[in-house]
């Protein structure tokens, strides 16, 4: 996607990526986001203590339910196993979206999604960690994205309404 013209309207191209978040005690949380390439807003997310196949699917399912994009939406990601899983591909096809994946060995293809993480981690953690998964889901993550990313659809309370 790097080098492609930017979409001129929201809900035309979403880019997704997974990052690791430190948790107290030395373990990790796994956060996936779907980011609208035009508005740069987080349109869907999920965070868990493991990285199962459906981590990215659940975040995309939430985003599709809230945003209701037109047919032809492009969802772009790297070539991670979660994005190449049959269930994920079925979800993409079921909603009339098109899947796009980074070229093999070209980490810059997903730069639009990856660029979120450095700012996100610097501003949110400053060397810290989450005490628990519950704190991540209901604590710092939603307010950070509401204030810093200006993405109200990131908040789980808004996603469920």
Task: Please characterize this protein's 3D structure.
There is one protein chain. The protein is α/β, with parallel strands linked by helices and 161 residues long. 35% of the residues lie in helices and 21% in strands. The protein has 7 helices and 5 strands, in the order βββαβααβαααα. The protein has helices at residues 55-67, 81-84, 86-94, 111-124, 133-138, 141-147, 156-159, and strands at residues 13-22, 28-36, 42-48, 74-77, 98-101. β2 and β3 (42-48) form a beta hairpin. Residues 6-161 form the Integrase catalytic domain. This is IS3 family transposase. Pfam families: rve.
Topology:
Layout: E1 13-22, E2 28-36, E3 42-48, H1 55-67, E4 74-77, H2 81-84, H3 86-94, E5 98-101, H4 111-124, H5 133-138, H6 141-147, H7 156-159
Parallel strand pairs: 1-4, 4-5
Antiparallel strand pairs: 1-2, 2-3
């Amino acid at each position: 996607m790097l080098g492609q013209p930017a979409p001129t309207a929201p809900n035309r191209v979403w880019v997704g990526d997974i990052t690791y978040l430190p948790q107290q005690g030395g373990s990790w949380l796994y956060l996936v986001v779907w980011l609208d390439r035009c508005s740069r807003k987080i349109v869907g997310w999920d965070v868990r203590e493991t990285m199962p196949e459906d981590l990215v699917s659940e975040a995309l399912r939430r985003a599709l339910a809230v945003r209701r994009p037109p047919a032809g939406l492009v969802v772009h990601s790297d070539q991670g196993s979660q994005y190449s899983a049959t269930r994920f591909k079925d979800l993409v096809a079921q909603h009339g979206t098109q899947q796009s994946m980074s070229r093999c060995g070209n980490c810059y293809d997903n730069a639009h999604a990856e660029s979120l993480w450095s700012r996100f981690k610097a501003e949110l953690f400053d060397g810290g960690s989450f005490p628990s998964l519950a704190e991540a889901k209901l604590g710092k993550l939603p307010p950070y994205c509401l204030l810093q990313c200006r993405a109200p659809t990131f908040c789980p309370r808004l996603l469920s309404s």
